[in-house]
Amino acid sequence: MASIELSLTEEQRALRAGVLEICKRYPGEYWRDLDTRREYPEKFVTELTEAGYLAALIPQEYGGAGLGIREGGLILETINYSGGNAGACHAQMYIMGTVLRHGSEAQKREYLPKIATGALRLQAFGVTEPNSGSDTTKLQTIAIRKGDRYVVNGQKIFISRVLQSDLMLLLARTTPVDQVKRKTDGLSVFLIDIRGLKGFEVRPLRMMMNHSTNALFFDNVEIPATSLIGQEGKGFSYILDGMNAERILVASDSLGDARWFTDKAVAYSNQRVIFGKPIGSNQGVQFPIAKAHIATDAAQLMRDKAAALFDAGQPCGGEANMAKYLGAEAAWEAGNACIDCHGGYGYAEEYDVERKFRECRLYKTAPVNNNLVLAYVGEHVLGMPRSY
Ligand SMILES: Cc1cc2nc3c(=O)[nH]c(=O)nc-3n(C[C@H](O)[C@H](O)[C@H](O)COP(=O)(O)OP(=O)(O)OC[C@H]3O[C@@H](n4cnc5c(N)ncnc54)[C@H](O)[C@@H]3O)c2cc1C
Fold it and tell me: What is the rounded distance in angstroms from the CA atom of residue 243 to the CA atom of residue 240?
């Protein structure tokens, strides 16, 4: 039976302390500078990789630490709590999960040890397309088998860290939608080496936050047939399999953000004196911060429950989705309370509040928007009719 631990074990406390130690070397100035230039946190990611933290979820036999999702989440939460942005780190943790669960032994032996050491980077996951958006089964990128290769044509939008990765996981149609029984059939997952790939174009997009996000174009791109993960046509179910891990990890990013905002808001409200008293003594300032703290603690309990179920190998779809929803909403609530109590200073770049405010907003929309989480809970947890 899964059970939720209310306090961290000694090993988990040591893990958090180790990550915090690294994060201290990457203060607000580091992230602010990268944000202005929209540059990838190369130095930070390299240091975390060399220290083994990004291989936390890779089993020991493939060179990783073989830790659970709770520990993976703790790493991400700690990075965001320290003022950083764990986007690249959460991506690496959940993208490799598809290879681990559905890749062949040869693929796992070839790639996972190199991903663990950082010799190869897999932080790109190509799903979203301009014409299908959240309706993944309608995606139009097509991969046609020709002998020992597949030829890929199509485009993707909002795909992050492609220019910083050596490998990308790609979801494409291998059988046209009008030739399959169920629309979820006929999609396949490929692990492709994107270095110097002919016919593959990457166009960076300047987004609201620093996320290394791109539009991708595939023009008769040839990839080896050996890059197929698992069985052809079963890709959608492989992607679904990884979603609970992704939701729990993203919830952890949000929890770190929420706690960063709350700490920052409390510290500022206690020391800023206006009308002869600290602004934090006004209920109008104090209560939104207290409410955000309550929302964060509640979200953490749900994340811990989801992680405990996940690590015990039990079903956790409802809990993982609810954790992602509660975490994203708590961070957004805390972000608003933090920017409000800072007055004009909340908008000044040097305080980092506006940067974190932009960064935390993403998780209400991606990797899945909170409306679709509500639709999941309505349908799968409450047994209501499918709403879409
Ligand atoms: C910075 C950033 C990085 C990203 N990185 C990646 C990446 O690396 N790889 C990748 O594949 N994708 C990535 N995405 C894409 C992201 O996952 C999608 O933007 C998201 O899934 C929503 O798809 P969409 O933008 O097409 O919105 P749409 O599907 O067009 O939906 C728009 C809005 O309509 C609402 N909506 C849609 N359908 C319903 C419904 N049935 N019921 C109720 N409301 C609904 C939702 O509120 C939704 O936000 C990234 C996005 C951003 C912004």
Answer: 5
